[in-house]
Amino acid sequence: MKKIIASALIVLWATGHHSFANQIGPVGKGVSTEEGTARYYAANLKGKLTSFGEKYDDSQLTASHSKFPLNTLLKVTNLENNLSVQVRVNDYCKCEEEGKIINLSKEAASKLGMMASGKAKVRLEVVSHPTAEKTIEKALDNLMTKGREVSSKEEAKENKIVSNSAVPVPPFSMNRTYDINGTEKSPKGFGVQVTALSSLNMVQDLYDELVKMGIKKEEIYVQVGEKDSNKIFRLMFGEFYTKEAATEKLTWLSQRGYKGVIRSHYNL
pLDDT per residue over 177-235, tens digit each? Predict the structure, then answer.
């Protein structure tokens, strides 16, 4: 039975297993280098099943690609700051249709210093190609484990009431400042802006990065502005009386791969 399932998996692997990345199987094993735009996975994909049959874990160094076989190890270099990281391909993506060559996990994007913009110009280099037999065997084990998990969940549903109540979303109103949880704040003077994004989820990701770098949570703010008639979320930290006083932190930020700017708080 396992051989039959394994054979089916080979077909899926060759013709396209549909995961959350939803892309075709591997081609172009001879490709060794590639340059283009990299982006990283959205936060809501955490825990979703990949083409390799394992759950996406944003703390692991993984990636999705449209050509390289599953389990290929790639060296990814951010051409904008020369930072590099090694990732394992565990999923496929329709990258070219979205103007990119690779999707990276949050952890990989963090190590490449590309969290502020959400994208970067990168170079991909093959570190090692996978052994097909071991790759298929591992993917099969992952999928069978997933099947057992689904069965367990179905059994649990019979004895558990699932709540569908929605969690209220903080307002984050225009021309106001908040902490990351949506509590309104009134910082004064100037702050160092790390990024300005239309996605609050991506702002949350970068907020986590600032905390890991040692910035106190109470010193981090989300200033809500407007761009092209849409909300823009500016992630900022610090309260400085003058622009000059913020320069030291701006330099500190740039040494960690982020291009910040000094911006006034609304309560200047």
Answer: 999 999 999 999 999 999 898 888 888 888 988 998 899 999 999 999 988 888 999 99
Average pLDDT over residues 134-142: 50
Q: Phi/psi zone of residue 238: left (φ > 0), alpha (ψ -120 to 50 degrees), beta? A: left
CA dist., res. 235 & res. 204, Å (int): 9
